[in-house]
Design brief:
330 residues, homotetramer, alpha/beta
């Protein structure tokens, strides 16, 4: 489906794979961006690696330079009492490699493990945005054990030095999450930060079955919570990794896709391009007016979410926490 | 906006006022339905009473025979530390009158108060569907006081005889909510039931600012939870009142309205009715295909909800519980 | 430590093993009661079976006729990411055998499985009393699947027909838990009920490391919540099993044991029995006055609980839910 | 009741009034400590002010130099739908005066209001320790409004500049609460900190009916959570106020009081002081052994708490949040 016009519309996605889909063709065809795809068929897992290599690629993709790994598994749709062991293993492997690539040492190595702060971004009170906080609830923290029993305690036991915080949202604390996290980093000096967040996708097909892992942190406007500030190596001083799962689709994306589909129908049926072109040729103001009549942006962002999102978020939170455990603990 | 075709679309609303809006004109013009509207300007409250008088009206409206009161107050959008006293008073008055109309006696009357079971329908774990359970949390139950201190205790103190239950959802209990509620009614024999539920609206404008009160109970397919069974006087044996606030709009409604807006644009701009008519004249199958391409109904119902729905539901739950207290306690 | 006087004191325990300890000697020496003990040393598990055979035994023990199995494992004190697999297996075996002994069919058998209602007794808002509700949160219900897909669905998949409810507490619902449960049983007709409850022990040593399983249901005065009504085969019409873990010790038990210890010291040190006898010979009123000065019974029951009870209850809830799954699902 | 020996026993109290009770007589009789008491009879409120003036007083009391205000109201035992308005007003007055005394400016004054960080100390998952976190949930934060709308926004509206955080407990975060709070203070620079915490009392009579307000912050070993670090002006760099309500009594206090009562009985009844003296003269090791046999300190602190502590904490959290609002907002 061709994109008829998105200049005036907030048809956001936090998924690099969806940004990449806007461009036709395989890896290498978008300047500054390298795409790799591979499947683990027997596990039902489809993996993608999008590497944005330079500023040109960043401009094309609307995302910063860095690595974006996506794991997609249809099995994640159903509940599984083992929290999807194959997905956990695969994701743990991706996390471990990405951390290692950045010089972060996990538990069980020869040298002392790195200290890692995990941040559960999101609003614990709003189900689609509660993924980060829920993952934090399941994690086993260890930093206090090294405070109590000495520096070698974690190393001996194959533990990482793990701490974690759920900073809540600004309406609840009066503070930006970046202020809270910067403050904590200033006091506890971790070597790296892993942020867990709920994401917005453009397509309903991605909801709850796609996990994105990146080394570019969190950027303004991203996440279900439309984060206000950056949480990146530039702003926090240490590498910032992000793990996210899309739980909502922006309502504007739904409307946008509908209009696009309408255009296709018109083109197909009318025998000429004329009226399809008409819509495509609408002034941005008119397009915007069309969407505005339905969505009333003064209400703020509106999200489309599946009815059973609470079960999905609960299950996914265990899949992610188990993958973090598997990646960090020996 | 003319309705171009809704035969194949689930463009549901739980609000009687929205069903009534499908028909042009004032009260009396839909056979079997009487509409009354009045404002309390100084309080910013707009009230509507839709009475469906007979089966013909029920067929026209797609809702059962009975009374539907709607209270709309833009002030409900903002947080208020008094939980919107004027709305509480107004709603309490409507609740009191409707109960009285059905012979239900509230606290503070000459005779012994009626016993009332309040049901908090909905999924406590899914924020837009948690309104019912949250209201139950704030209610002051009194039935156990009459069990403990005797039948006249509540009457002397101006209390109603109030009990309450949050039956959860079928995935959590393995039981239909109607089974749980019928069973409880069989054991405790209340004179009436008040069900509190989160609703689906057709228009975003209604979300969180509209409260509906009815004496027709709960019908299959209604509510954010798409309830499977009826909770009505027919099925439960006692009068069933329902209080609800819309917290979601069905995604199909959003798409439907978009397509309708598109049709208007085409008509207006193209100078002829031709292409507008074209869309309107599409076979139902083609219209359905259009929507299906976007929404994939096999994912189940998808809902559009504002980003700050948790705050709204929290505040509304207090407004409703306070109104119930004010209506039932002397 | 000899019991100096408990006539006027509420030194309650819900554990049959602790009642049995009041009598010296091995099994068979308390009339009407048979005691068996055995260890699984390599797993660190100590098992006890107390069978109260007749009314005389019931009078001696202050507990009804029936079977009481106790599993004790010191390992339960520490957190374990496998939720204590050995304990889960052992407990699952005990549950399975006890159910089978009563003719209850679990999933995976030749015939259609029995339908079982699990009740999570207790107050979800009071941490030491939240064990039952937490276990219910982790259980996988299946009854609705048989409602949806037909009677053979569960049998084919090796599932039991499982439903569950958390009835809350009377202050929150205005109803006795027995009314709610009776009502639900009347509507859904299960073959058996399993109640999960938090218990009161007499000794701190038992807290969080002892699991009791019985086929005698719940009796008035038992549990952290001091239950008001019976949930037994007599009152509910079907076999009622109970699984519980002590999370509190009654404060009166602490005081009682202190006074007993004081008596021992006096006897030992004073060279004669005289002053120990003095205390033992105190009028019940004086003994009661002693305790009253400290505990002020008009405040209601006071409980002693470890500071990290929330972690313990969280972990134990998984151990118990996993054991129930293992016992019931093929 | 005379204190027979507390050298080896942890008979802790966080309440200055209880420490003061150890000394006979009125204010002025303990060197370095000034006591004032006054009643508001018509409101059923009893107020106490303990001022520890110097290091000698600090040594006598086992508490730091500063001011400790206690508000006691028997009415707090019962639920009240107005959250005890009189207590709210009185407490708000005490808070306002203490802040003003330290130069902190509340909302509604001529000059720009001070910025205040409220900290909800305690474990949200352990009911008796959840008071702080619950108060935070009810507070209306305003600092983000000044970030969004400019510095004069709060002043114009009579708001304080209020932010807040619930730092959780070390087992959940891997960090000391002091590290989290110091970090946040470093980033956001408040003028003062108010800590809300659940306390341990020595006597059951104080539970839930006593509110303590001080300007000395939090010291190691205090609170239900036995805090590890200080949160004081010395460690945080700004004035630290503390508001607390006792929700538990240490189990050792119960035992200690029992032994003391026993001693009294012996003295009274035996006609001589001999055996009372015997117990009082016991070697510390023997006394300790006595308590140890019952409480097994290796289990960690054990707490005695009323059975309905969840209701109490819930109600008290509103009383305290409302008092904070009344003190800070014009």
């Amino acid at each position: 489906m061709e994109e008829w016009s998105s200049k005036r519309l907030d048809v956001r996605t936090d998924l690099a794979v969806e940004e990449r889909e806007r461009f036709p063709g395989d890896g290498g065809e978008v300047s500054g961006v390298v795409l790799k795809e591979w499947k683990k068929k027997e596990k039902g897992i489809h993996l993608t690696e999008v590497v944005i290599k330079n500023e040109e690629g960043a401009r094309n993709m609307g995302k910063p330079v860095g690595t974006y790994l996506t794991l997609e598994a249809a099995a994640l749709e159903k509940k599984d009492e083992n929290f999807h062991e194959e997905v956990v293993s695969e994701l743990a492997g991706l996390i471990g490699n990405l951390l290692k690539h950045h010089g972060i040492r996990t538990g069980g190595m020869e040298r002392e493990p790195s200290s890692i702060l995990v941040v559960g971004l999101g609003n614990p009170g709003a189900t689609p945005d509660a993924l980060g906080p829920k993952v934090l609830e399941h994690l086993m923290m260890t930093r206090h054990l090294s405070l109590e029993y000495g520096a070698e305690f974690c190393q001996k036991n194959g533990y990482p030095i793990l701490s974690g915080i759920t900073p809540g949202v600004m309406a609840q604390t009066g503070m930006e999450t970046s202020e809270i996290i910067k403050g904590i980093i200033g006091e506890t000096g971790p070597d790296a930060v892993i942020v867990v967040d709920a994401l917005a996708a453009r397509s309903i097909h991605r909801l709850g079955v796609t996990i994105q892992l990146s080394d570019t942190g969190i950027h303004p406007g991203s996440g279900v919570g439309n984060h206000r500030n950056s949480l990146t190596e530039e702003t926090l001083g240490v590498p910032v990794f992000a793990i996210g799962v899309p739980t909502v689709v922006g309502a504007a994306a739904i409307v946008h896709d509908t209009v696009g589909a309408m255009v296709e129908v018109l083109k197909r049926e009318s025998g000429t391009r004329r009226y399809g072109d008409y819509i495509e040729g609408m002034e941005p103001e008119e397009q915007y007016e069309l969407i505005r009549e339905i969505l009333e942006p003064q209400f703020g962002p509106m999200y489309v979410t599946p009815h059973n999102i609470d079960e999905r978020v609960e299950n996914l939170s265990f899949t992610i926490s188990e993958a973090i455990h598997k990646a960090l603990f020996q």
